[in-house]
Design goal:
The chain is mostly helical and 102 residues long. Helix content is 72%, strand content 0%.
Length: 102
């Protein structure tokens, strides 16, 4: 299978979202992207964004407001959504590569 022509653009996006400057620490954004290592309301919210973002609730966001600013909640959401997108893209590309080998 030829190299994905969008791979570098995707990598740049990931770096900016997960490593670049932000209101939240890079490690927290990376954990949100990977849906790992986060407990309590933060972990529940991030997991919901990963599995079914349309079903996140106002209550879930409200529960984060005691610990995070609006900018930080936004960054957590973007990091989680970006990580979920990355995971889905990787699965699709692996399936395509598998089909091409068959």
């Amino acid at each position: 299978m030829p190299a994905n022509p969008h791979r570098q653009k995707w990598q740049t996006l990931l770096e900016r979202v997960l490593i670049g400057p932000g209101a939240t620490p890079a490690l927290l954004r990376q954990q949100a992207a990977d849906d790992r290592g986060l407990a309590g309301a933060t972990g529940a919210y991030v997991h919901q964004v990963h599995v079914d973002a349309l079903r996140t609730t106002d209550e879930q966001v409200d529960a984060l407001r005691s610990s995070y600013s609006e900018d930080q909640i936004f960054e957590l959401t973007v990091a989680a959504a970006t990580g979920a997108g990355r995971d889905r893209l990787d699965k699709v590309l692996a399936l395509l590569a598998e089909q091409e080998r068959a």
